[in-house]
Structure formats: structure tokens, C-alpha cells
Amino acid sequence: MTNRLASLPHPALRGLRHTLSLLVLLTLLVVAQTARAQTSTSTFTVTATVLPSCTVAGGVPLAFGVVTPGIQQDGSVLISAICTVGTPFTLGLDAGTGAGATVAARRMTSGGDTLEYALFQDAARTTQWGDGTAGTSTRSSTGTGLQQTFTVYGRVPSSAAAAVGTYTDTITVTATY
Known about the structure:
The model has no long low-confidence stretch (mean pLDDT 89). The chain starts with a helix and ends with a strand. The chain has a 5-stranded antiparallel beta sheet with strand order 1-2-7-5-4, with no helix packed on it. Strands 6-3-8 form a 3-stranded antiparallel beta sheet, with no helix packed on it. The relative contact order is 0.21. It contains 2 helices and 8 strands, in the order ααββββββββ. It is an alpha+beta fold. The protein has a domain at 71-159. The longest helix is centred in the first third of the chain and has 26 residues, at 11-36. It has helices at residues 2-7, 11-36; strands at residues 54-57, 73-83, 88-93, 106-110, 113-120, 139-142, 147-156, 173-176.
């Protein structure tokens, strides 16, 4: 009988063996559940359409200041355009709202009086900026998706004679794309 008692494990080891058996069994159950997990996948398409577009903005007024008869007066102002990337566009300037104005001979007004002036694309004031008619040109560019600025150069010629007053005009900027 002593041999039989000697072959039995120590009581503390029997509890540890039981705990280990439970851990192994639980691990096998978790692995078995994971092995049985199924997945299914699918895809979907994401789309967007970007159409050509342009937005133009005028700047602060083109102010010639005090005009003295017989003296040419120059000024300039910035205009801007934001057009979608790769979109070719042209910027045109209309004749304005001055009485009797054309794109080649614009007129500011003060009551019933007028004061002639011209708008140009270059600082040398050789290329008149208009709508493409009457010997004027439009300004061409290609959209970058960012704001692009363009300088409009103005000139009141020295030959301009006008009555005393404050003269104004409004020019419309048009982007064609």
C-alpha cells in the first residue's frame, strides 16, 4: 500500500494539474471558435465630377486721384480669377457704364459730364484691355485651382478735358471658359 500512496501526486499538484487542464480546454475552445469565424467582403465605388468653372473678383477701385488738364494720369488695380485646374479662360472688360463709352474709349461720368480713360493689360499701356472688339484684347490664362491675380493698368490721357467734379464708372469683368 505504500507504493500506491507514493505514486499519487502531491495534493497541491493535483489542483494545478486541474487548473492547467481547464486552461488548455478553454484555449482550444477559443481557437475552435476563431477557426469557425467567416468573413465576407465587398467593394463600392466612390465618384466625383469636377466641371470647368471660374470665379472672378474685382479689387479696390482704380483711383486716378486728382486729374490735372494737360497731364497724363496713370493708375492700376488688381483683379483675380479662380478657375479649376487646367481650364483655359479669358478675362474681358466691358465698356463700363459711362455715357457713350466703348471698350476702346471708356468714359467716367459726373452728372452730365464725361472724362475719357483707357484700360490696358501691360504697364507700358500699349495693349488695350477690352472684350476683344474695337481693337481691344482679352487676357488669356489657364486655371490652377488657386487665385490668380492680374493687373489692370489705367490711363487718363493728357488731352482729356473735363469739367470740375468727381467722375466714376463701373467696369464688369467677365471670365469666359
